[in-house]
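Saturday, quiet lab. Running sequence design on the structure tokens for the scaffold JK sent over.
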């Protein structure tokens, strides 16, 4: 994305050129910038994908009544190319960037805050199906079951791993081998909304507290333990402690089958992380991996695979 596009958007929306522009290298499907104009900060999101921008606009408006710490829309235009929208700026750093400097008590507080916001989101109506939806009317991304969502996720990882040729596709087979075990569990999942990507990213931390939840291009409907599993996998890849997710898990009060599903979901996200290696997305360079990182992901997989294998073998 070149600076001319950003300058033209600022002229169109503010009748002024930006005093400063900083690219935020977050997300993989859009270009995000912090812009400063006349001593005020805003966040500009640009994408060639109309449904992404429309999704952000839809959900930010839909969630306004819930008193959540989310951005406010300043201006939006999904009828041009590229599409964009401008939102209010929320101070803070991604949880992953702030994590090392947080005390255990602060991690506990943040886990409680996020859990409260997840509960607030759950007060919205259930959807007519499952998945990552840009609106309640989004038929293109709607799945008939939660199992369909999980299988689709595994299938995406399989395609990427096969294309990138960094990891063996046998990891996919091994994850799929557990699907029959969770059939009954998946059938019991309701299509309830949750913040699926509010993990070590998209959760902003300011002075040790949760200051915002961002990047709401869609809302996921299904099992909110999915977000807990993704956050666990993210912390593992940071070589960080798991105190935060342990506090979060305590609040969720998972039963035995949910504990088992959580281990399975971590495996699903492990192959997802494997699959991202070698991809470019919206980055200037592809996501590289060295031998040490490759071995680390493989070891994480084997650890959780062994745990789940022992659980399912004992039934």
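Result came back. Writing it out in full:
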């Amino acid at each position: 994305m070149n600076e001319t596009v950003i300058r033209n958007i600022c002229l169109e929306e503010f009748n002024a050129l930006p005093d400063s522009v900083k690219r935020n290298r977050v997300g993989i499907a859009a270009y995000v910038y912090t812009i400063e104009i006349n001593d005020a900060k805003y966040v500009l999101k640009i994408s060639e994908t109309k449904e992404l921008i429309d999704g952000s606009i839809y959900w930010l408006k839909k969630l306004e009544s819930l008193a959540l710490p989310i951005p406010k829309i300043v201006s939006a235009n999904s009828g041009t190319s590229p599409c964009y929208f401008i939102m209010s700026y929320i101070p803070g750093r991604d949880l992953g960037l702030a994590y090392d400097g947080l005390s255990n008590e602060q991690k506990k507080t943040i886990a409680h805050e996020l859990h409260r916001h997840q509960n607030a989101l759950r007060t919205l109506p259930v959807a007519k199906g499952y998945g990552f939806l840009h609106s309640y009317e989004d038929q293109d991304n709607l799945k008939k079951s939660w199992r369909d969502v999980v299988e689709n996720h595994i299938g995406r990882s399989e395609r990427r791993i096969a294309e990138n040729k960094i990891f063996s596709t046998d990891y996919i087979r091994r994850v799929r081998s557990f699907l029959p075990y969770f059939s009954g569990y998946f059938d019991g999942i309701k299509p309830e909304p949750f913040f699926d990507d509010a993990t070590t990213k998209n959760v902003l931390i300011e002075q040790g507290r949760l200051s915002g939840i961002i990047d709401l291009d869609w809302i996921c409907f299904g099992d909110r333990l999915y977000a807990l599993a993704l956050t666990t996998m993210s912390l593992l890849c940071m070589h960080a402690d798991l105190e935060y997710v342990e506090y979060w898990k305590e609040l969720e009060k998972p039963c035995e089958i949910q504990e088992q599903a959580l281990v399975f979901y971590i495996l699903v996200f492990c192959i997802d992380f494997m699959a991202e290696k070698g991809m470019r997305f919206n980055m200037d360079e592809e996501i590289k991996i060295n031998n040490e990182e490759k071995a680390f992901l493989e070891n994480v997989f084997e650890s959780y695979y062994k745990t789940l294998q022992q659980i399912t073998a004992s039934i």
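Notes for JK: Residues 3-88 form a domain with the Phosphorylase Kinase; domain 1 fold (CATH 3.30.200.20). The chain has a mean pLDDT of 94. Ask whether to fix the surface positions before the next round.
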